[in-house]
Amino acid sequence: MPLTVVLHGPAGVGKTTVAKQLMLDWMQDGQAGTSNSAFYLSCKDLNHKGTCTFAELISANGPDLQDAIPGILTQARKLLFVIDGFDELRVPSGALIHDICGDWKKQKPVPVLLGSLLKRKMLPRSTLVITTRPRALRGLRLLVEQPLFIEIEGFLELDRKAYFLKHFEEETQALRAFELMKKNATLFHMGSAPAVCWIVCTCLKRQMERGEDPASTCRTTTSLYLRFLCSQFTAARGSCPSDRLQAPLKSVCLLAAEGIWTQTSVFDGEDLRRLGVKESALCPFLDKNILQKSKDCEACYSFIHLSVQQFLAAMFYVLETEEEDVGGPRCHIGDVRKLLSKEGRLKNPSLTQVGYFVFGLSNKERAVELETTFGCLVSAEVRQQLLKCRSVPPGKKPFSTVDAKEILYCLYESQEEELVEDAMASVTEISVRLTNTLEMMQSSFCLKHCPNLQKISLQVGKRIFLENDTTLKSDAQVER
């Protein structure tokens, strides 16, 4: 049995749920006459703690344990520590390996205590379960000894289908909504997180109840998320957009963008004060289940899923900025050029999806929908900035296959023919590799709006056109 287990996977797929289930199992597995103990340490919560002893740290949520702690810690083999959300830890580089300590009665900064536990200086015979998103795996590998890595995959295809069938009263509606999501490979992949399935179901069910055809909503990820957000706040027909939503929307978008650039998903009172965001401004989004209060930390807020935070961060770039907002508290937020740069996205993978959403929100019809719902103006400048970053200068060599895939994805997300024509005006040659139906749709949409295209190098992946092949099973093994 390994003493260190790392549960890793993308946001919202159930890592914390699995870790807490392991805690329950651990507590129930104690032998007769003895008992196992389990402690839960949320890294989001640890960010707000000062200097203390290790004993004080683990008994913070159970003051009645303080007298029993010395006896508990003498039986390290019976101890399980769950360290949840390692990627959320806000500590300077090297803080976890500096001045590590084995004495649980000594006062130390929290990063030192946590590093001591991870490096096996503190309670070396205890068992650790650590949860993290993939971005922190590299740093974690340098800290822990001989860990067992387990990937948490979230909902597989059958799970997603079952969720849709439970959410809709009518089976035909459920299956139609499921098939629409499945046609969008990006959206379907994101559906491994239950929260994304809830967003899709909530949005499409509302459309179906109003007698609308939801097919176009799932065409791009942006159109789905925009429809979801606007449907949560849509006023009665014939009424004007509510001015009271303008300031809250800008506050939430600022919070989302700041969090993406600092790789933060939980915001406390200090974050709100630094950004000039009032807690009252968050209420409309708390009421609609777009934001939620943290259970682990009082007065802390998070978005229901990383993708929602990414979408609202993209809206930060497209909303018109008032004069008094210029030069405000946005020191960590990069401009559009930095957002779309390869260097930035290598350091911070979340920026990639934000960039796709910005392209999606540059669509003129979507801008009107935003303005109608929230009464705010959409900037015309962002469109020009996108063109600067993604247009091909005259005389440049043909795209590489990788560059072409990225650019076609961005332009397809916009669903804006004029933008595609402007961006691709100087393209005469292009290399395209198709591996799935969505990539075929993206290429088809963009390439027919390339006025000067003369030569295409096309590679088609095996089985891409075998949609009716009965040998293709939609089970978990094939999906992996």
TrEMBL record:
UniProt-listed InterPro entries: AAA+_ATPase, NACHT_NTPase, NLRP_HD2, NLRP_innate_immun_reg, NOD1/2_WH, P-loop_NTPase
| Gene3D superfamilies, per the entry | P-loop containing nucleotide triphosphate hydrolases (3.40.50.300)
- Alphabetically ordered keywords of this record: ATP-binding, Leucine-rich repeat, Nucleotide-binding, Repeat
| Source organism, top-level taxon | Eukaryota
| Annotated coiled-coil segments of the chain | none
Classification from the root reads: Eukaryota, Metazoa, Chordata, Craniata, Vertebrata
| Domain spans labelled NACHT | 3-201
Any keyword Nucleotide-binding?
A: yes
Keyword Ribonucleoprotein assigned to the entry: answer is no
PANTHER family, per the entry = NACHT DOMAIN-CONTAINING PROTEIN (PTHR45690:SF22), NACHT, LRR AND PYD DOMAINS-CONTAINING PROTEIN 12 (PTHR45690)
This chain belongs to the protein called NACHT, LRR and PYD domains-containing protein 2-like
The organism of origin for this protein: Pontoporia blainvillei (Franciscana)
